[in-house]
Amino acid sequence: MLEPAGLRAVLRALTGVVATVFVGASPAHAASVEAALDSRAAANAAAAASQAEIEKVSDDTDKMAAEYRALLKETRALEVYNKQVEALLDSQEKEMESLRGQVEGVTHIGREIMPLMSRMIDGLEQFVALDVPFLPEERRQRVVDLRELMGRADVTISEKYRRLLEAYQIENEFGRTIEAYRGNLDANGGKRTVDYLRIGRVGLLYQTLDGEETGAWDAKAATWMVLPSEYRASVREGLRIARKQVAPNMLYIPVAAAQEAK
Q: Does 117 lie in the same domain as 160?
């Protein structure tokens, strides 16, 4: 589209052409034609300005409409997000209520289980003291460690209970295993290093390192007794079996008779 100034120039050129063609026309008529052309050019210029204004308004309207649609989309997204957050907050509140109930329950259980564990340790200590005296230091120290553990604030109740059950499990395993270990024997007026043979809880025997003396624990008399030489070979064989040096075999050893429980 031509600018108003350019359009006016074209019209003036055409006027010149028309004036050349109609040489015989009067000056008044020529002036009238030029005035009409000027008026037409002014109208076209006004129309062009109006069109530009309309286009600007249209562009502004489109821009505002796009912004409105973007805001509307963002608003809907925020509404969905708010609903999700509300649901999450409700879930967290329910979880907090559940946790508070669990904490109260744990506190109540803790008040009950601590005395129970203390009684269990007392029972374990008494059992070790009355049992066949194998690995005495190790077993007594385990009880001492448990008592110290119960007084520690940095250890959870569950861990304390786990360790206590572990100690009971160790004692339970002693009743169905065979074991050989070396230790000191304080009997018959002196302390000596001997090899011990434990067969479950039914037999605890010893043999001196030179193999010259063999003995056994007399549970009824709560003392050690020296065995006749006929048991030496069998105890020596039992030590080798416990150390997995030979295959399991029948052993000839003294076993205390079962007694009626009181």
A: yes
> Do residues 90 and 105 lie in contact, with contact meaning Cβ atoms separated by under 8 Å?
no
Number of domains forming the structure of the chain: 2
Spell out, as residue ranges, where the chain has pLDDT lower than 50. Answer: 2, 17-25, 261
For residue 1, is it within any domain? no
Residue 118 placed within a domain: yes
Distance CA 252, CA 262 (A): 30
The domain containing residue 228 runs over which residues? Answer: 178-242
Q: Are residues 192 and 218 in the same domain?
A: yes
Contact 6, 25 (CB under 8 A): no
Please provide the distance, in angstroms rounded to a whole number, between the alpha carbons at the two ends of the chain. Answer: 123
Contact 216, 205 (CB under 8 A): yes
Order across the sheet with 223-226: list the strands. 178-187, 190-199, 203-208, 214-218, 223-226
Q: Is 242 exposed, middle or buried (0-12, 13-18, 19+ CB in 10 A)?
A: buried
Give the pTM. Answer: 0.58
